[in-house]
Amino acid sequence: MKTLALTVESRTGSSPLTAAIDELVIGGWAGRDKAAMEHHMVELEALGVKRPTSTPVYYRVAAARLTTDPVIEDVGANSSGEVEAVLLSCGGQTYVGVGSDHTDRQVETYGISVSKQVCDKPVAATVWPYQEVAGHWDELILRSFAVIDGERRLYQEGPISGLLAPEDLIRGFNGTGALPDGTAIFGGTMPAIGGIQMASRFEGELEDPVLRRSIRFGYDLKILPIRG
């Protein structure tokens, strides 16, 4: 189990949330936009990652990998982030936030599930009540920036409408449209602008243009040496 100290930002104010997560799920190949999903598959194939036999795929990851820390550690400079909306259920309520499915690309070439497990999954410390965005979900925008060779670049950007709607994502996972209490699920990502690249820092955001607000987060990558 992982306990996260979060802040709920709602239309009526802010409140603390202690979220106890005992199941973490990464939704892979969760696109509604088949052309964009095909583009992402081609990106990964260029790195030696085999495409799945069917989609979407639900990868299980240890809940302990969730973190709001500003720095994560990885062995070797072979990993990169992916911005994703994150749904979590706590105390009978569903919330939405944003995180990064940080993945070891070298390990991914021989074991996608293993590659998901070996990296921490950074998330923003702020969430919104899902019910506040459910009615205009498709208007939300995902965006990420990466610091590469000292330059901060726009890395990903696009409407969340290209990804599966939350109810469809959850239904594919457990056969219902409801997320079990204590579960967090990452909702899929979009292609990287210019292709997948490794970065020293990754930043992500979820923008709500209807209610004029955003959730932002960022983290630095500390590279550990490979000694054998």
TrEMBL record:
GO terms for molecular function: catalytic activity. SUPFAM superfamilies: FAH (SSF56529). Pfam families: DUF2848. This is DUF2848 domain-containing protein. It comes from Bosea lupini.
